[in-house]
Amino acid sequence: QLGLPQLKQPADAANPILIHAFQPVPGSNEPAYVGEFKVEQLGEGQSVLMPNWMLRPDEVDQWIVGENWHFREAIPAGSKALIGALEEQLSEGLERLLARQAELAQTEAIIARTQEVLASRVGDIEGISNPEEKQDKLPPEYVAGLQQTILDEEAAVNAVTADVQQLRDELFDIQERIDELKQEIDAELHKLQGGDQAQASLTPGL
Prior knowledge:
The structure is a single chain. The chain is α+β, with helices and mostly antiparallel strands. Among the domains are: about 15-75, no CATH class; about 145-200. About 55% of the residues lie in helices and about 10% in strands. The chain is built from four helices and four strands. The protein has helices at about 75-125, 130-135, 140-145, 145-200; strands at about 15-25, 30-40, 50, 70. It has a four-stranded antiparallel β-sheet with strand order 3-2-1-4, with no helix packed on it.
């Protein structure tokens, strides 16, 4: 029964019995106040008590539960009010702490997902780490990376552009040569036509 006082089961379950628990302190004759508990169930040799405050992390681990616990049905009003105010402050602080921890966990999860996306995008840009194993299974832009693929494509475009320009230059030269040949042909025809006219003027008429 852990030193429970002589209690009677309350007639109204909505108003449970409240008792205050104390536990011994190693090396001290003065007990330490544990807190206010609700008596959920009374029984022969066993009772169920529930803390009437918000438990803090690892608080239960600090309890030294045993028959040397002592209980009181009441404590001085001033002490109870002070403890209640402190418990309220601790509860509010704990709620803020839990909220901040949840926010921190959410932020860390976002950072982890962002790093995964970044690593994926860096892989897309810079290429995969083992291209020789996947070059036959993935498109070339995934193997070499978008950055290298762009550079390769730009180099290919530059090479094709240079070839096109060279062909244009060659065609221009050929066209110039054709024009020169046409001019030479025109000149030869002009000479031939001039010679025919001179020959015709020297031939007497019939």
